[in-house]
Amino acid sequence: MGWIKRNLIFVIGGVLALVLLGVAGDFIYNGWSHNSEAAGKLNEIYDTLKSLAAQKPSPGNEKINNTKIAQEQIQQLRAWIANATACYQPVPAIPEDKIVSNEAFASALRRTVDGLQHEADSAGVTLPPKYDFSFSGQRTLVKFAEGSREPIAAQLGEVKVITEILLAARINALMGIQRVRISDDDASGPQSDYIDQRPLTNDLAVLTPYVVTFRCFTPELSRVISGFAAAPNAFIIKSVNVQPAAATATATAATAPPPPGSPMRMGDAGTPPPPPVSPAADKGGLQIVLKEQLLQITMEVDLVKLLPKR
After folding, report:
1. How far is CA 118 from the centre of its chain?
2. 131 in helix, strand or coil?
3. Partners of 304 in the beta sheet?
4. Looking at the whole model, is its pTM more than 0.70?
5. How far apart are CA 32 and CA 19, in angstroms?
6. Ramachandran quadrant class, 133 (left: phi over 0; alpha: psi -120 to 50; beta: rest)
7. Would you call 183 helix, strand, or coil by DSSP?
8. d(CA 294, CA 271)
9. Which end of the chain is less packed: N or C, by CB atoms within 10 Å?
10. Pick from 153, 145, 176, 148: which is nearest to 107 by CA?
11. Could you state, in chain order, the average pLDDT of each consecutive group of 10 residues for the chain (310 residues)?
């Protein structure tokens, strides 16, 4: 104790030195732990960068920044999608109510069919007698199958758009429009109003098929195709079957049975009539290079309807 009293300052200094050494050791240990952890993370990041750089395509280097290029391409893709969406406008249903009543649809159907008949008359387009544009099964009804009014209203709007494209092209005659059966009421309509195909659904849209048959010349056919291409709704023309209208009329007449009580003629009972004798060609005048003839067109058209965004 006497020694401690004589060397008190030395003892206090020694104790302080030990405390400071302990603090310094703890600081060094913590610093070493942090450095070791940071070095591990740095090595992990380095390995990740090395693996990314080895990929094809890689994020880039000091000359090419593929990440920035990818971000720019994403913006371009989004802009393209926004522009393309404008070409996939939905066709308004007739009527456009979310819940369609019997009275509303019956009135809208009569009004739409009458309007299309007047438009065809104004455009000089021939229609079948009392043609209902594939809605003969519903034309005379006042009460419709439960759950079918909204889908039928959507089809009525689509048929109206298709018909107006044909009328705007000034075709000569509309022979018929065929659609998909979606209602029990369709069983009472003529089978020539329907097709056996079904709508096709994928991850993006629903493709609803239609078949239209009409008669026209080649300029009108080109206007029909242009009309479908320029429509704000997305129509896809899947096939176009072209035949001379005279050939189809002759085939129909040849297969039709003779009226009751009429005498048998050459060509009856399934025997085709002899071909008409064409007059001798006139030797004088200009030679006919191209002779336009009336065509009968059967066209398969799909309407693309985008699914709601999820």
Report:
1. 30
2. coil
3. 207, 234
4. no
5. 20
6. left
7. coil
8. 26
9. C
10. 153
11. 66 75 76 78 78 65 74 87 80 90 94 96 95 92 90 95 96 96 89 92 91 95 95 93 78 51 44 51 56 90 86
Closest by CA position to 195, among listed 173, 214, 212: 212
How far is C-alpha 154 from the chain's CA centre?
Answer: 15
Cα distances from 102 to residues 95, 109, 147, 153, in angstroms, run 11, 11, 11, 11
Pick from 99, 225, 233, 85: which is nearest to 157 by CA?
Answer: 233
Could you tell me if 286 and 196 are in contact, meaning their C-beta atoms sit under 8 angstroms apart?
Answer: no
Are 144 and 150 in contact by the 8 Å Cβ rule? The answer is no
Please tell me the distance from the alpha carbon of residue 104 to that of residue 64, in angstroms, as a whole number: 63
pLDDT the model gives residue 214: 97
Lookup: tokens for 255 = 């297969």
- Does residue 113 contact residue 159 with C-beta atoms inside 8 Å? no
* CA dist., res. 230 & res. 223, Å (int): 10
Q: 296 near 244, Cβ under 8 Å?
A: yes
**Which one, of 235, 163, 180, lies nearest residue 205 by Cα?**
235
E strands within the chain? Answer: 173-180, 194-195, 200-201, 205-216, 234-244, 295-306
Contact 209, 171 (CB under 8 A): no
Going along the chain from its start, the domains and CATH numbers come out as 102-254+293-306 (3.30.70.60)
In angstroms, the CA 244 to CA 294 distance is 6
3-state secondary structure of 49: helix
**Hunting for tokens 């007047």 — which residue is that?**
118
Please list the residues that pair with 305 across neighbouring strands. 206
